[in-house]
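Reopening this one. Same input as before:
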Amino acid sequence: MALQVKKSQLPKAGKGLFTTLPIAKGERIIEYKGEIIDWKEYEKRVAEDKDGYLFFITKKRCIDAYSTPRYKARYANDAAGLSRIKGLKNNAYYEIVGEQCFILATRNIEAGEEIFVSYSKEYWDCIRYNIKNNLYKKPSKTKA
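Same output, byte for byte:
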């Protein structure tokens, strides 16, 4: 898959993940990779504010892409997040297969499009709660 990282279309989202080739509905776009850690280490990194790219699979297996910017899946943003653009919708989803996580296309995606994947309603509820209570630090790709 030919993917590139460049400025996201979403305001304040930073970088985004884009495809340079068409992707068919149901196709695996990319695997979410990073350092493999357990829940105890996960909680430690959250406390240290180093949780920007954590993906929870099980208590014994979490993927942390914080220190691995070479793994491009971490740059996929959520079009239904805090900053939205009319007309932009998620076009992919996370699929956990065994101990791995992949991003799959929910529709045909044209070359040049940004990949958008849902972080979950619970994720954004937590972010909104933290903002409301002045606990907000930064977004994380944590999935429950």
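So the earlier flakiness isn't reproducible anymore. For the record, Helices lie at 39-47, 121-132.
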